[in-house]
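testing teh design pipeline on a random one, pls ignore if ur not involved
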């Protein structure tokens, strides 16, 4: 595995890749099984796989979250090497932001209007800025994004269409711990009691779906009921439980099995903001 520590090393590596397809997995490090499933998809589909590790400052609206973002670089590199990834790119800030960390403007339409688009100022602009910059530098044939961050996946898919970029966006299913909790780098920051409580979020939502709770209530009533149930746990404070159309990510007014619908949730657990989502129908 080649470690690329700056743009000129990336350019040198890239120049040797002609005639090969390239799969790209952008990450912020503190790698876990969720990241590795993206890597495996890439290794199946593309000739060469490159993973980036970069904690992108422009997508953080909370300076403390940025400062405390977990860093496990040494073990990340070892695990990527064990997986036989071809290259890992550790960009310098000026590779990506030669004029300083400033986001570009985008039109995400309704995709960024709800859920994570509310109360996380500039998050998606920052994310789309860094991802499109990576695409410009790496020129990947495929790029892999987790459904764990469904809104991010939808937004990047739209940006690629809008800007007519040649990279194919490949969605990858969410990897979960045994109790159903979506894996996330930020889970490393949870204390034991917080982690235990957090494991109930997915269980509560799944139980409601299993019992077909949507048959006897409106999305508003269901959101309230589920938020109350989650909030019973001492360490959990609900930001939202939202049912949204999987295509335009607008909250739905009524349950209709012919509209592809997902349930989206954001919960504060200690200092960590957790998000998750999955399809309802
Ligand atoms: P991050 O390092 O958190 O920015 O995530 C990098 C990529 O990994 C994103 O496309 C995420 O959606 C994806 N990812 C994060 N957690 C998971 C998970 N539990 N399952 C699948 N993909 C994930």
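output:
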């Amino acid at each position: 595995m080649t470690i690329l520590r700056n743009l000129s090393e990336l350019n040198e590596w890239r120049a040797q890749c002609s005639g090969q397809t390239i799969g790209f997995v952008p990450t912020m490090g503190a790698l876990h099984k969720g990241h590795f499933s993206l890597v495996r998809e890439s290794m199946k589909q593309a000739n060469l796989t490159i993973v980036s590790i970069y904690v992108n400052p422009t997508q953080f609206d909370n300076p403390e979250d940025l400062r405390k973002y977990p860093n496990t670089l040494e073990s990340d590199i070892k695990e990527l090497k064990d997986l036989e990834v071809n290259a890992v790119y550790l960009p310098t800030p000026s590779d990506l932001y030669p004029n300083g960390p400033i986001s570009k403007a985008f039109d995400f339409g309704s995709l960024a209007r709800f859920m994570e688009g509310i109360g996380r100022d500039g998050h998606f602009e920052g994310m789309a800025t860094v991802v499109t910059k990576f695409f410009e530098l790496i020129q990947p044939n495929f790029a892999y994004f987790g459904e764990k961050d469904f809104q991010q996946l939808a937004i990047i898919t739209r940006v690629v269409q809008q800007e007519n970029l040649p990279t194919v966006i490949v969605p990858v299913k969410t990897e979960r711990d045994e109790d159903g909790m979506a894996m996330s780098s930020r889970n490393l920051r949870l204390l034991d009691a917080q982690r235990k409580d957090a494991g109930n979020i997915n269980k509560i939502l799944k139980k409601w779906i299993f019992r077909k709770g949507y048959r006897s209530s409106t999305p508003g009533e269901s959101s309230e009921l589920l938020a109350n149930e989650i909030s019973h746990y001492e360490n959990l404070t609900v930001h939202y439980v939202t049912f949204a159309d999987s295509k335009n990510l607008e909250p739905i007014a009524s349950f209709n099995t012919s509209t592809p619908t997902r349930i989206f949730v954001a919960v504060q657990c200690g200092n960590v903001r957790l998000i998750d989502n999955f399809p309802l129908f």
